């Protein structure tokens, strides 16, 4: 072993000599030759100079080396342009025992894209020693074996190739055996032991030999194996093969258990000595045993594994035929199986250059990928590649089965953002085989689309009195571009809105388009306004568009109704007058109000809130007209206060009120009775009895006359009162014409709940009846029961009933008829007669005083 190391060291200067040459082919290929096992960093060649490239441009053009293998054995120094060893190369690992070992490399530069083919021939050095699989080989040979019989021995192996592999064998010196001629060994590759002299087991039963294998290296190396020969006795006839060499040709990829051939050996002996069994010889390689099987009885050889032409083109098999004798005899038959190629390999697509992204504005013929196509099958088989036609790309073919994928047509990312390009390569075998490879290409975006709003214009509604800083709506836009080209920013363009900058009214969130109010809006001052919003992307250069936003202020019920008429001064009540003779349906006045709000919030309704008397007035809810429900009575106050409530229809509803002081004035065209006013003014209201005493004293001188006259009247009425009752004729009242402001109401009046009863019982004239008068004296004279209202009276001069000033008899609390009570006391009759006599004879006594007196007397028992 030390000798071998010294020999290897002595050969290093020779092995490091490089034979470098450049191929003059049109493809621009370069071929280098280097020995294996060079040290790391060893110089291979100046590739920059060999390719005619400037060393300074190597880095700029991204010069690099691409290897078909997974390991990068060679690398380039971009500063010097030299090719050097990056990883130690073991030819035996790279190419096993192939005669030619070529490492295929590709040199690539960009801008413009160029690819150079580099072939590095790896030269073998004698760095491996021949060896045998078994250090000892046993052979059994009959003593009667004829001279010249040969016995195959195990083959020596050497990992080196060419002249450095096994070249010769040498057998140790002995008297009986020699090696077959070296020429024969070189033809078959199997050393064979040949019997030179007959064997005699009694003289020497065992022979020990040594077989030495030498390689062809300088210096040569060798390996040894020991051969032990056991001489067998008896069985003198060995099997004989029908053919010394069996040769057959078969195709690859045969089905399992397919019969390849049958080996036949004949033994003329009888019995077990003539029975032949078959087996592979001991030195049959394992790869043969994995592919073929041998039937020990029939000698049939079948394919149990896959025959692959690309793995092995032929197989050499040694079959041993042995009889079953006590001392079995054997013979060796040679089998040569030649495998032919079929189209069973799909084309291989290797990507040598690929770009995963491409801008959408890429110019035509922009390189996307470079592909190399190979096919392991042999023969005249060509490969053709193609891509779909409906895409904006084209596949161009170059030399040495290289294809370049380039752009061909317009590319729009917004239409198609990525492409999956399937490259299909089909060979011309029978049947043809095809391989697909998918290349993913992402289209990068450029800013070629203007942002667009989702609507042509936007309408936003905001309720007045809104909070400052509250959102009033949002605008939205979209941009079909991507990344920064689709990042949108919103802004409000400078403009004047009713003299104010638009930015002082609203602002907009630049990211999401939400608009914010900068002030609290008042519908009564500003009903709507417009602002222009711009959206801009973040591309380079940026693109933008505008839209109009209409902001409509929605009215809120924030204004109470304002009373326009009747006018008031400093919050005081309005003043108005009405004649006492005003009939029902008389329009007193009209309340007019306005509301600054709009729509439903400005719809007004009128109602009486605090009337002095609910039965006197009503108001039209829609127009505000105040109408009388009935005529005035004596008991009604001469000064009425009407509070009108004006309410809008908003939510919540707002209202305003106005007070109207109504003064009731007497009508000068009438001569109303003074009875209704007696007792309410002056000193008469303090003590009625005192007034009666004065009246009696002042009229004492007429007392007798009054009694006489009254007696006469009563006597007359005794006969007439039975058949006659003083009454009011309703028809006569209906025929009276109202002459103060009576007109038809413009709307249906809303009457109080108890108005109908009051109106029917009090306002409409009711007949005044007396009960049937009995007797001829005043004892049977009936007086109506007087209350607060005026009552009808008897005209003494005409003996007829006449109405009081208003001509109505009323009762404010219930619907009652006037009741008459008979006076039984003579004093009371006399007093009453005196009063009437006084009234008739003494005009100085006022009618009011008389009325108060009557009331007082009728109340007291």
Return the average pLDDT rounded to an integer: 76
As laid out across the biggest beta sheet, the strand order is 1-2-8-7-4
Rg, please? Answer: 70 Å
Low-pLDDT ranges = 1-27, 669-686, 720-861
How would you describe the shape? rod-shaped
Number of helices: 12
How far the N terminus sits from the C terminus, by CA atoms, comes to: 170 Å
Biggest pleated-sheet summary: 5 strands, mixed
CATH architecture term of the largest domain: Sandwich
The number of distinct β-strands equals: 58
Name of the top-level CATH class of the largest domain? Mainly Beta
The CATH topology of the largest domain turns out to be Immunoglobulin-like
- Overall tally of structural domains: 6
**CATH level 4 superfamily of the largest domain:** Cadherins
Helix content: 10-25%
Strand content: 35-45%
Structural class: mainly beta
Keyword list:
disordered N terminus; Immunoglobulin-like; rod-shaped; mainly beta; four-stranded mixed β-sheet; 861 residues
Describe the structure.
By secondary structure, this protein is mostly beta strands. It has six domains: 2-123, Cadherins (Immunoglobulin-like, Sandwich); 131-340, Cadherins (Immunoglobulin-like, Sandwich), CATH 2.60.40; 348-444, Immunoglobulin-like (Sandwich); 452-554, Cadherins (Immunoglobulin-like); 562-665, Immunoglobulin-like, CATH 2.60.40; 675-728 and 766-859, no CATH class. The protein has twelve helices and 58 strands. Strands 1-2-8-7-4 form a five-stranded mixed beta sheet, with no helix packed on it. A hairpin with a 5-residue loop joins strand 23 (292-294) and strand 24 (300-303). Helix 7 crosses helix 12 and helix 8 (703-720) crosses helix 11 (826-841). Mean pLDDT is 76; it is low at 1-27, 669-686 and 720-861.
């Amino acid at each position: 072993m030390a000798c071998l190391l010294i020999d290897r060291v002595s050969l290093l200067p020779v092995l490091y000599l490089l034979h470098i040459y450049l191929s003059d082919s049109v493809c621009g290929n370069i071929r280098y030759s280097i020995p294996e096992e060079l040290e790391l960093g060893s110089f291979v060649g100046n590739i920059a100079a060999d390719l005619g490239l400037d060393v300074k441009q190597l880095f700029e053009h991204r010069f690099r080396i691409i290897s078909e293998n997974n390991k990068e054995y060679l690398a380039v120094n971009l500063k010097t342009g030299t090719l050097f060893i990056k990883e130690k190369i073991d030819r035996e690992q790279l190419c096993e025992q192939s005669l030619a070992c070529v490492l295929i490399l590709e040199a690539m530069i960009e801008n413009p894209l160029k690819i150079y083919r580099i072939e590095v021939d790896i030269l073998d050095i004698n760095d491996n020693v021949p060896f045998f699989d078994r250090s000892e080989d046993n052979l059994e040979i009959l003593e009667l074996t004829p001279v010249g019989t040969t016995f195959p021995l195990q083959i020596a192996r050497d990992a080196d190739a060419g002249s450095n592999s096994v070249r010769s064998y040498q057998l140790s010196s002995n008297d009986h055996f020699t090696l077959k001629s070296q020429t024969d060994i070189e033809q078959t590759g199997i050393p064979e032991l040949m019997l030179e002299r007959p064997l005699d087991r009694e003289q020497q039963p065992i022979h020990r030999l040594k077989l030495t294998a030498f390689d062809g290296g300088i210096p040569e190396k060798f390996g040894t194996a020991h051969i032990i020969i056991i001489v067998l006795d008896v069985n003198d006839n060995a099997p004989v093969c029908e053919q010394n060499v069996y040769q057959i040709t078969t195709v690859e990829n045969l089905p399992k258990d397919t019969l390849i051939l049958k080996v036949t050996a004949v033994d003329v002996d009888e019995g077990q000595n003539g029975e032949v069994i078959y087996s592979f010889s001991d030195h049959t390689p394992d790869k043969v045993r994995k592919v073929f099987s041998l039937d020990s009885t029939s000698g049939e050889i079948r394919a149990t594994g896959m025959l692959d032409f690309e793995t092995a083109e032929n197989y050499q098999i040694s079959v041993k035929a042995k009889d079953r004798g006590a001392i079995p005899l054997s013979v060796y038959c040679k089998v040569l199986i030649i495998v032919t190629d079929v189209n069973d390999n799909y084309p291989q697509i290797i990507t040598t250059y690929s770009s995963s992204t491409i801008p959408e504005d890429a110019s035509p013929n922009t390189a996307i990928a470079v592909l190399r196509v190979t096919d392991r099958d042999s023969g005249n088989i060509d490969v053709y590649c193609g891509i779909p036609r409906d895409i904006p790309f084209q596949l161009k073919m170059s030399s040495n089965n290289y294809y370049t994928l380039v752009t061909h047509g317009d590319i729009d990312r917004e239409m198609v953002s990525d492409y999956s390009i399937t490259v299909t390569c089909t060979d011309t075998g029978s049947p043809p085989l095809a391989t697909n490879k998918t290349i993913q290409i992402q289209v990068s975006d450029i800013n070629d689309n203007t942002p667009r709003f989702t609507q042509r214009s936007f309408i936003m509604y905001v309720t007045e009195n809104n909070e400052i800083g509250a959102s009033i709506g949002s605008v939205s836009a979209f941009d079909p571009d991507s990344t920064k080209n689709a990042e949108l920013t919103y802004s409000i363009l400078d403009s004047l809105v009713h003299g104010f900058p638009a930015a002082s009214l609203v602002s907009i969130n630049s990211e999401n388009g939400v608009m914010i109010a900068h002030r609290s809006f008042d519908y009564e001052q500003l009903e709507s306004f417009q602002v222009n919003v711009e959206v801009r992307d973040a591309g380079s250069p940026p693109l933008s568009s505008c839209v109009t936003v209409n902001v409509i202020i929605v009215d809120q019920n924030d204004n109470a109704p304002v009373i326009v008429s009747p006018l008031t001064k400093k919050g005081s009540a309005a003043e108005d007058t009405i004649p006492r003779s005003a009939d029902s349906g008389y329009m007193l006045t009209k309340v007019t109000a306005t509301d600054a709000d709009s729509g439903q919030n400005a719809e007004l309704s009128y109602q009486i809130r605090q009337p002095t008397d609910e039965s006197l007035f009503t108001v039209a809810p829609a127009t505000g007209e105040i109408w009388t429900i009935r005529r005035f009575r004596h008991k009604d106050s001469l000064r009425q206060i009407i509070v009108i409530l004006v309410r809008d229809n908003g939510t919540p509803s707002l209202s305003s009120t106005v007070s109207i002081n109504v003064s009731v004035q007497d009508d000068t065209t009438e001569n109303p009775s003074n009875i209704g006013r007696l007792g309410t003014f002056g000193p008469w209201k303090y003590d009625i009895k005192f007034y009666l005493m004065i009246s009696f004293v002042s009229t004492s001188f007429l007392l007798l006359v009054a009694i006489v006259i009254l007696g006469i009247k009563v006597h007359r009425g005794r006969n007439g009162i039975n058949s006659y009752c003083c009454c009011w004729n309703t028809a006569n009242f209906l025929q009276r014409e109202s002459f103060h402001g009576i007109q038809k109401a413009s709307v249906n009046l809303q009457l109080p709940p108890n108005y109908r009863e009051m109106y029917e019982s009090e306002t409409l004239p009711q007949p005044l009846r007396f009960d049937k008068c009995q007797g001829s004296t005043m004892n049977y004279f009936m007086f109506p029961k007087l209350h607060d209202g005026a009552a009808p009276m008897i005209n003494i001069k005409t003996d007829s009933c006449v109405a009081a000033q208003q001509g109505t008899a009323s009762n404010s609390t219930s619907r009652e008829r006037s009741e008459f009570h008979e006076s039984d006391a003579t004093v009371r009759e006399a007093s009453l007669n005196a009063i009437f006599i006084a009234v008739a004879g003494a005009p100085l006594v006022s009618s009011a005083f008389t009325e108060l007196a009557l009331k007082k007397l009728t109340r007291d028992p």
